[in-house]
Design a protein that fits this description.
The chain is of the alpha/beta class. The protein is built from 13 helices and 16 strands. The strands form two sheets. Strands 7, 8, 9, 10, 11, 12, 13, 14, 15 and 16 form a ten-stranded mixed sheet that branches. Strand 4, helix 3 and strand 5 form a beta-alpha-beta unit. The longest helix has 21 residues. The two termini are about 45 Å apart. The chain binds NADP nicotinamide-adenine-dinucleotide phosphate and L-homoserine. L-homoserine binds next to helix 6. The site of NADP nicotinamide-adenine-dinucleotide phosphate has 27 residues, from helix 1.
Length: about 425
């Protein structure tokens, strides 16, 4: 049996899941891989917290892991940019392999870390950084390696999907659903990263880099979260035959890429429409496989630990092989992000109930050449004189829609900020 000595940085949700999974499945892992996984040391901030680790393994001194001769693989589960980046670079400098679930760090500094790892001839495994327990990076980097990938559409943030599911199916308030997501350990330490779309954007960047063979560290693209969505929107979407999901979209347009993260209305028959709660799902279009959908638990202690261990085991099996696995990030230059795209739209415009309000709104849309397929006005119960105008707009350019919304936002008959949601139609 070949030992693999693991130094664990961080023992929170995922780190504890890793400790639990190693203990639970040690013998099955040994049977399958011939490896004996041993957790030698665990870095934490507060050694007094209760954890599923023998106290003598805990340390608050990173050097005990990063510079230790008896550690083969450093598993970084601290999260955030620093000190995670510094610790990983130091581990690589000591010619230790690294496994990380840290999408924020890889999205910001992946090219630096992969370059250093290549120089030192060590590996960086990062399957757990995108969609928790779903082996989507291996699917794209290895299983689909013979395909030209044209598009990826995914539900890649478990917290947003959980909140929208609970609001839609069980009429939970947003705040209650968020507290539950935090209790379940699926939200980030700073949940604004989930709610405002940055976590999904980091994952989309890594997926697109993998699928399209480009570096996107400097890419700027549309990123919206779910805070603006109210029960009213979920109900209206449902009455129109849609469900609201937070999606991430990447398309290879040839000379440019389309990347965007935002909530969207999906028709009931869309392959992502029935992805519920903390599940994630990614649809990949490749020229050979046509369409492939991969789904599962996108977050949580054990699903994410499963992905972390898949990398540790792969590294343990391949030892000091000079070439990284096929799913390591390629670095073949940059591609610009397309400035505009087209979509149908759902709009909810909070209004004062005064004569002529609908005419003012439709005139502003008409000036931007936007035509309407559905319009309804409702009054808000318990708020006399206030209502909502809800509109479905035909396919138009995002830039035209933005211009019209800017104009509508300035109308004195508006009583709040317009809600603009895209209707996503293609697979
Ligand atoms: P977490 O519960 O907040 O745990 C973080 C751990 O890191 C804690 O044990 C903390 O120590 C330790 N830590 C933080 N800063 C430290 C420092 N400066 N020095 C030493 N230790 C430090 O986070 P998590 O949910 O496990 O997430 C870890 C990583 O996995 C993040 O990159 C996250 O994005 C990623 N991820 C999470 C999930 C998920 O479902 N949670 C899924 C996929 C990927 P103390 O315990 O002493 O405070
Ligand atoms: N906070 C993340 C999510 C964890 O909700 O998807 C998994 O990356």
């Amino acid at each position: 049996m070949k030992p693999v000595q693991i130094g664990l940085l961080g023992c929170g949700t995922v780190g504890s899941g890793l400790v639990e999974l190693v203990a639970k499945n040690r013998s099955i892992i040994a049977d399958r891989s011939g490896l004996d996984l041993q957790i030698r040391r665990v870095l934490v901030r507060d050694p007094k917290k209760e954890r599923p680790v023998a106290p003598e393994l805990l340390t608050t001194d990173p050097a005990q892991i990063l510079d230790a001769k008896d550690i083969d693989v450093v598993v970084e589960l601290i999260g955030g940019l620093e000190p995670a980046r510094g610790h990983i670079l130091r581990a690589i400098g000591q010619r230790k392999h690294v496994v990380t679930a840290n999408k924020m760090l890889l999205a910001a500094s992946g090219s630096e870390l992969f370059r250093r790892a290549a120089e030192q001839r060590v590996r960086i495994g990062f399957e757990a950084s995108v969609c928790g327990g779903i082996p989507v990076l291996r699917a794209i980097g290895a299983g689909l390696v013979a395909n030209r990938i044209s598009a990826i559409v995914g539900i890649v943030n478990a917290t947003c999907n959980f909140i929208l599911t609970k609001m839609g199916e069980e009429h939970w308030h947003f705040a209650r659903a968020l507290v539950e997501a935090q209790r379940m350990g699926i939200a980030e330490a700073d949940p604004t990263l989930d709610l405002d779309g940055q976590d999904a954007a980091q994952k989309l960047q890594l997926l697109a880099e993998m699928a399209f063979g480009v570096t996107l560290e400097k890419a700027k693209f549309l990123v919206e979260g779910i805070r603006q969505i109210e029960d009213e929107d979920i109900l209206t979407a449902s009455q129109l035959g849609f469900v609201i999901k937070h999606i991430a979209v990447a398309r290879d347009l040839g000379p440019s890429l389309e990347l965007r993260v935002h909530p969207a209305l999906l028709g009931a028959t869309h392959p992502l429409a029935h992805v519920r709660a903390e599940a994630n799902s990614i649809l990949v279009r490749g020229d050979a496989v046509t369409e492939m959908v991969i789904s599962g638990r996108g977050a949580g202690a054990l699903p994410t630990a499963s992905a972390v261990l898949s990398d540790v085991i792969e590294i343990g099996r391949d030892g000091q092989a000079e070439h990284g696995p096929a799913w390591h990030l390629p670095t073949r230059g940059e591609k610009p992000i397309a400035a505009d795209f087209e979509s149908k739209y759902y709009l909810r415009l909070p209004i004062k109930d005064v004569p002529g309000v609908i005419g003012l709104i439709t005139t502003a849309l008409g000036k931007s050449d936007i035509s309407i397929s559905h319009l309804a006005a409702t009054l808000i119960e318990g708020k006399p004189g206030l209502g909502n105008v809800k509109i479905v707009a035909h396919r138009t350019k995002e830039s035209a829609l933005r211009k019209a919304i800017d104009e509508i936002s300035k109308l004195p008959v508006l009583s709040g900020r317009p809600v603009v949601l895209r209707i996503f139609e293609e697979n």
